[in-house]
């Protein structure tokens, strides 16, 4: 191994979701001492163009700031890089192309977690930004395993998801959580057995309101953290001297 | 301003305390959007020599790893650097000497917060590592303002503080919190009106056990976060375009 393990986290989208991801990384890593915990370098710079507006064609692209973050994480010695923001995966290929450290994809980590769950659900709802839904990553990943995706319609997104998301971003977790609960119920009513909470603001807010259906959800950030932790645990025997 | 504001956080001591500090930074910063939140780059690498053992002469110095962290944060563009670990401030001068970005001292931020509190206490207890207590930073800072410090004795440190601290580091927050409660009560019984929780593990654990005397405590990490947030708020008007 030429490069010691060091997880680079391209965060800031939003900053609270990034800190939540860092907490999850620690929580899913068995460690008897500080030294056994996963080493990370984190770029948590929220001064970045709005991803939802960029994909809607109503704002500038965040790509220049994302490229800066990737460059700084590589300079800091990251051996692997993750982005705890589903929507930002629109620029995944462009970022992978210029990064020395390999990027780990949040959708791949999530679909693996869904498929490993027992029993595997037949219908899964997806709560996500319009950009993520339009990209179709989660739907495609589920369909490859014979699972039917259930997605919000335009009216639901405008009524519940988008306002909920911006509420979280200004710190109003209870307001955001209440909006996401409406969205979740609509998906359950259309036959979803479980939900993928495919926007990092959503699980933060649903935990804040103690949503009773949380055990029926998959959190892509948690799946990504578990994937990273597993890689670290495979490395740390040789890393710790 | 030649260097845009970017707070460098030299963390990992321990990794949980670092994440707690990042949460506090967000909580103390009024922000109506992601973009108004404080930008940070975080070195959360816990593979660093034990500070308590180094100061007790029973383990290697963490200075080489601290210097690496300072170098990486400067390379990443940090304009200011903080260390959310009281004990690591033993190496503050050595780190300041080599850092382009100025370091903000946790003790100065804390003493300012204590002095600004109204009414100013006459006797303040300090819960800290032996290394921090032997250094005398907090005692000296309090005495300069006519406040009498009340400190744990050797037996209390060995019975409560040290086991509590290592309990937190292995994730046993309730066990650590219970030990710190004993230490706090001893200081209150010796006349302390308030306490400085001068080890970043302590407030995390006391919050986990809902210690009833938390309103009577000063948290240096919180004081440091508030100082950083204030600097950011002074900068952000010119920073945001």
UniProtKB/TrEMBL annotation, chains A, B:
<dbReference type="Pfam" id="PF01177">
    <property type="entry name" value="Asp_Glu_race"/>
</dbReference>
<dbReference type="InterPro" id="IPR015942">
    <property type="entry name" value="Asp/Glu/hydantoin_racemase"/>
</dbReference>
<protein>
    <submittedName>
        <fullName>Aspartate racemase</fullName>
    </submittedName>
</protein>
<dbReference type="InterPro" id="IPR001920">
    <property type="entry name" value="Asp/Glu_race"/>
</dbReference>
<dbReference type="GO" id="GO:0047661">
    <property type="term" value="F:amino-acid racemase activity"/>
</dbReference>
<keyword id="KW-0413">Isomerase</keyword>
<comment type="similarity">
    <text>Belongs to the aspartate/glutamate racemases family.</text>
</comment>
<dbReference type="InterPro" id="IPR004380">
    <property type="entry name" value="Asp_race"/>
</dbReference>
């Amino acid at each position: 191994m030429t490069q010691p393990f060091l997880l680079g986290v391209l965060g800031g989208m939003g900053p609270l979701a990034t800190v939540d991801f860092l907490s999850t990384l620690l929580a899913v890593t068995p460690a008897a001492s500080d030294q056994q915990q996963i080493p990370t370098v984190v770029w948590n710079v929220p001064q970045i163009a709005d991803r939802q507006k960029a994909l809607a064609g109503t704002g500038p692209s965040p790509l220049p700031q994302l490229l800066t973050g990737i460059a700084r994480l590589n300079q800091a010695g990251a051996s692997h890089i993750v982005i705890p923001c589903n929507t930002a995966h629109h620029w995944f290929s462009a970022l992978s192309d210029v990064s020395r450290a390999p990027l780990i994809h949040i959708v791949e980590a999530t679909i693996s977690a869904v498929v490993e769950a027992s029993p595997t659900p037949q219908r899964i709802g997806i709560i996500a930004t319009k950009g993520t839904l339009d990209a179709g990553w989660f739907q495609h990943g589920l369909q490859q395993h014979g699972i039917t995706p259930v997605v919000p319609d335009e009216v639901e997104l405008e009524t519940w998801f988008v306002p909920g998301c911006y509420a979280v971003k200004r710190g109003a977790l209870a307001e955001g959580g209440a909006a996401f609960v409406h969205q979740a119920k609509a998906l359950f009513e259309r036959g979803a057995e479980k939900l993928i909470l495919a926007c990092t603001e959503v699980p933060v807010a649903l935990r804040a309101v103690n949503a009773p259906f949380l055990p029926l959800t998959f959190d892509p950030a948690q799946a990504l953290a578990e994937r990273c932790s597993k890689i670290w645990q495979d490395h740390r025997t040789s890393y710790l001297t």
